Amino acid sequence: MSAKRPAPSKHPSWISSSTISAAALDRRFYTTVIFGAARKNILAFAAVPEKQVPDRPINNRLSLMFFRVMRKMAMKRRRTRAMSHAAQKLTTFPAFLKVEAKRVVIVGNGEEALAKCRLLSETSAHLVLVAEAPSPELKRLVQQNGIEHAAKAFSPELLEGAVLAFGATGNSDEDRAVVMAARAVRIPANAVDQPDFCDFYTPAIVNRAPLAVAIGTEGASPVLAQNIRARIDQMLPPALGPVLRLAQSYRPAVEKLLAKGNPRRQFWRSFFLGAPARHAGEG
User: Fold this and answer.
1) Is there a contact between 251 and 268 (Cβ–Cβ < 8 Å)?
2) Using an 8 Å Cβ cutoff, are 208 and 241 in contact?
3) Sign of CA pseudo-dihedral 156, 159, 160, 165
4) Angle, to 10 degrees, between the axis of helix 136-145 and the axis of helix 111-120?
């Protein structure tokens, strides 16, 4: 009487060790392997030489065929992943532009202009709103934040001295005209909801000045950026701003007293993770 074959384990050893065991050659488990576990571990086959396939006369041909098919699939998936990784490059370069006391022009009367004014009011830029008939809410924001108001129709002369320009009229043609006028004098410009007419994108911002976290989707989904911004906003305590300002006040002394490299890194690590930052956050 032949010895009873031991039941293979639920997860054959070759799945985790990148080698093919005899248990994997049992015909009863080919379907499970192909459609179940192997789909999650298929890349393991790419590194397994054929000489590691066990030599069992009964199932040898079938096992070798199975192995070759799976290895071919693994190599294809590895190439696909490599191509996908290569394609995952940003078309923009995230950077923080210095705008303190610099002229930024926003053109528009309604909701789009209001949103841009609110966003840029979090900076120390010199904002100029070009609006013939601003909405009551926009007019109130202008007054509260000391925004310069040019109560006239847009003309290219209004861009003089600006470092950024925004077309936020709600009218596609008018916004494009703003962008084209800005580009003519080499001023980066942005047309709301028109990615092809944007030299840059405005991110969703978490403000803990001087700390800022900017989230952008290259114009693909502003709603997603806002959702992520809301999550990060909940994660970062309001006290981060005061802590960073305290660190700024210490920086000249640190640079004078501590050598570059590890001594300074150790100091700042203990500052931000230790008692100084904790006490500053508590007020």
Assistant:
1) no
2) yes
3) negative
4) 20
- Planar angle of CA 44, 86, 202, nearest 5 degrees: 130
Q: Token digits for 250?
A: 């210490």
Q: How many CB atoms lie within 10 A of CB 249?
A: 9
Distance CA 157, CA 178 (A): 11
Is the entire prediction scored with pTM above 0.70? no
Q: Give the pLDDT of the chain (283 residues) as one tens digit per residue.
A: 555 555 554 444 444 444 444 444 444 444 444 444 444 444 444 444 444 444 444 445 555 666 677 777 777 777 767 666 555 888 999 999 999 999 999 999 999 999 999 999 999 999 999 999 999 999 999 999 999 999 999 999 999 999 999 999 999 999 999 999 999 999 999 999 999 999 999 999 999 999 999 999 998 888 999 999 999 999 988 888 888 998 999 999 999 999 999 999 999 998 888 876 777 656 5
Q: Which two tokens stand for residue 205?
A: 């911002």
Q: How far apart are CA 30 and CA 133, in angstroms?
A: 73
8 A C-beta contact, residue 168 and residue 175: yes
d(CA 101, CA 125): 5
